[in-house]
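User: Predict the complex.
Assistant: Input components as received:
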Amino acid sequence: MNDVLLALVVVTALSFDFTNGFHDTGNAMATSIATKALNPRVAVGLSGALNLVGAFLSLTVAATIASGLVNTGLVTLTVVFAGLAGGIIWNLLTWLLGIPSSSSHALIGGIIGATIAAAGGHAVQWHDLFSKVIIPAGLSPVVAALVAATGTWLLYRISRGLTEGARSHGFRIGQIGSASMVSLAHGTNDAQKTMGIITLALIVNHSVPANASAPFWVILSCALAISLGTYMGGWRVIRTLGKGLVEIEAPQGMAAESASAAVILLSSHFGYSLSTTHVATGSIIGTGLGKKGAEVRWSVAGRMATAWLFTLPLAAVVGAGADALARGVGGDAGVIVDLIALLAVVAVIYLRSRQSRVGHDNVNAEWTGSVAPSVPAAEPATA
Amino acid sequence: MNSWINLTALWQIVVVGLLAGAGLPALFAIGLRALSVRRRAAAAPAADSDAIVGGSVPGIVAATVCFLIVLAAIGWGIYAIYQAGHPK
């Protein structure tokens, strides 16, 4: 029966990976879609393909997601499942509201919450949680904003002699390159986390030895899941990042994505597994600050910051609740109950989202204050 | 404070981040600017033109150098990631 539970955990982990994919498409592609450097469907296709490549590029599994933050000896498959459920629910909820939030924090929060519920607070390595996750999460958007603001200022100064059209044309080409780098970086960074979780589940289930690295089927399935999710395109989040925060021009788009790619890649080189969402948002705000006369919609930024502060704790609450429910019912039936509850929540959120649909055809509509555009979806998108 | 924040890593990320994340796009912009230089006898482009190639040969050469450096830097970066990700 344990292998059935293991299979369930693997499928759930891949589902989380899928939500991670579409939640984060915007980090790489929102600015290019907003400036029309790339057609929306081409953009998500390109991003999906590069995420797939990126996932294979770096194979040092970041099992620090789980083994560095909680005591693995106290983790069970039920805890992993409950943690994933917490992460998925939080990801979907924020997607519905069009809020770019960190999938990584949703995952970490869920796992920590479930661990605390199952084994108590002492099972969490609090110091590492703060120094490796929470503090870098606070610093990274600031660093990204600084780099992006500097880049934006430089780009506008250097290109002063160009006509408006030439500047847009030239930097749109540049945007394709920089957005591609972020997609690559994202595949390298984020697919790792789910690989780590699945490997953890395999270790806990004694299917692989304790120090094993991820088997190839795990790498391949995670790469495909995140790539597919990316291609589905979280249009709601893309819209918020591309239109809701700052009205973006091509030079800003290039500066933002270059800053994001640089910060993400450098930080993972130093061992920090960052939130690509925090970095991308910081960069976009930075480009608003670096260009004279650009408007930053601080109310939208404020809502985002609030969501970020609450992501870890709230995902933890859901994870803890999922774990408590499973243990309350007991045994494998408990996990089944959890699964039914998870599917029900997913269905509700999905149905709710259809009432205010955002797709590739209306993602660039005028921002009117909330993620769902008030113009009907029949508005034709200009190329 | 030091066990909570790795200050060495932080300033390295900021410095290299600025060089790569702001410096490389700036180099690209310089390339664009060089590319747009017109031949001495050519007329100024219309205000709504979006042509990026101006026609001056030294400009095109300079631009090509800039773009090649940017591409090389990106290629080196990807190689470095691959190296770090596949320890021998």
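Residues 2-354 of chain A form one domain.
Let me know if you want any component modeled separately.
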